[in-house]
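Table S2 (continued). Query chain:
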Amino acid sequence: MTVSEEDLLKKLNGDLAREYTAIIQYTQHSGVITGAAYGDIKKELIIHTGEALQYALTLADQIDYLGGEPTVEVPPAIPQGTTEKCSSRIWMGRTMPSKGTSRGLRQPKS
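Corresponding output:
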């Protein structure tokens, strides 16, 4: 199956946009996760943030090389049809504590 250059650029830009979302999510999660039990997870999130940024830069270079323009669109972190409550508790293959618990993710300041 042959993929046109236009389709390839669309797919690469889609990947780039999802990397932006991942960078934002990793950054946010590493900023709000607290507690000794989550120290290793926080370290991993910071590593994954750097890896996602490096991959985004690589994708942007590839898109530019092919004559396209790297996107600046950032898709939502929560897919349509998924409830925020469900998505926020299922993270990195683990079920995180519910809002209002004393451990895990800090509550946002009002």
